[in-house]
Design a protein that fits this description.
Elements (H helix, E strand, L loop, with lengths): L2 H6 L5 E4 L9 H28 L6 H30 L3 E3 H34 L4 H4 L2 H27 L8 E2 L6 H5 L7 H35 L5 H32 L6 H26 L1 H30 L1
Parallel strand pairs: 1-3
Antiparallel strand pairs: 1-2
Helix pairs in contact: 2-3, 2-10, 2-11, 3-4, 3-10, 4-6, 4-8, 4-9, 6-8, 8-9, 9-10, 10-11
């Protein structure tokens, strides 16, 4: 009789993930698919970063932003996927509360960085197409550093607040997180006290990133579309602008559509099954990171041409090394 209140007043220091428990017999298939996605993310984004760094004519703000996006994609997937694979393959599903809070911070911090980078890319395209004569004056190194500082400051301050509020909660009922990683609302749902502040903070994050970033991005592309439609039909500049902007819009739809549904389902208690909620949360991280390098690599001609040039240079070097010894032997 005395033990019950003591247990209720004790916060769990160790938590466990329940990653698709209803699909336990298919965990190896989920692990295989996740591993393929992980390899694709690492390879695709690394190749894109390598090409942008090596090809000199890609040294411009837009490509630096794409490069940063690739780095963020690699980091955010690395934050959750190794632990998720261990859970699926070996049922190593335990994590300390401190470890969970650290993972939660980096997952949401990096995701918010991605949102701000997409916003910066939209503004970059707006200046490039709507104010082309002033592009080099506006999008200079000073502006780039200011954008970087704003990106880091906004994400760091908001996500730190989120984690600090979550760390103040007591987790004394269940220690099972109905997710494959430490999602904010999945962790908060385990608390046995009031979570009003945490729910309000979660909604504030959605308003700050989704409610602010999406309207600005939408407004930017509406202005771009207005300028593009004024250009002569079939002109090279018009076709290039439409192609570049449609590429960015595809990436943004992949990120915001899945992310918005995932966030709102938790914060507004939408009637979605736990498995679907978990899947949405995982897809929100994996889909953008997997498809971004494919979309940018295939649809951006400058990056594709840069990649082809690097391969040709590599082939020439290999052929030169193979021919050189035989040439010496003949002499």
């Amino acid at each position: 009789m005395i033990e019950t209140p003591l247990i209720r007043n004790r916060s769990h220091t160790s938590l466990q993930f329940r990653c698709f428990p209803e699909l336990r017999e298919y965990h190896w298939i989920l692990a295989l698919l996740s591993s393929l996605c992980f390899l694709s993310v690492l390879l695709g984004n690394s190749v894109l970063v390598y090409v942008i760094r090596r090809v000199q004519h890609l040294y411009s703000p837009m490509y630096f932003l794409i490069c940063m996006l690739c780095v963020v994609d690699i980091l955010v997937v690395t934050t959750i996927l190794p632990n998720m694979l261990f859970t699926l393959l070996f049922n190593w599903n335990h994590i300390s509360l401190v470890g969970c809070l650290i993972q939660m911070f980096f997952t949401h911090f990096l995701s918010s960085l991605e949102s701000t980078l997409l916003l910066a890319m939209a503004l970059d395209r707006y200046v490039a197409i709507c104010k082309p004569l002033r592009y080099t004056d506006i999008m200079n190194l000073s502006m780039f550093l200011k954008m970087l500082f704003f990106t880091l400051l906004r994400s760091l301050s908001i996500m730190s607040t989120l984690v600090v509020l979550a760390s103040s909660l007591w987790f004394c009922s269940s220690n099972s997180i109905q997710h494959c990683y430490c999602d904010h609302m999945a962790l908060v749902s385990l608390a046995c006290g009031s979570t009003e502040k945490n729910n309000a903070a979660g909604l504030a994050v959605i308003i700050c990133f989704v409610g602010v970033d999406i309207p600005i991005i939408f407004f930017s592309y509406m202005k771009i579309l207005k300028v593009v439609l004024r250009a002569a039909a079939g002109s090279e500049a018009r076709l290039k602008a439409i192609h570049t902007c449609s590429t960015h819009l595809i990436v943004m739809m992949c990120f915001y559509l899945v992310g918005t549904i995932s966030f709102l389902s938790h914060n507004l208690n939408l009637p979605l099954e736990t498995g679907i909620n978990t899947l949405m949360g995982v897809m929100y991280i994996l889909i953008p990171a997997t498809v971004n390098p494919i979309i940018y690599g295939v649809r951006t001609k400058e990056i594709l041409h840069g990649l082809q040039r690097l391969f040709k240079l590599r082939e020439k070097k290999i052929l030169t090394l193979k021919i050189s010894p035989s040439g010496k032997g003949q002499a």
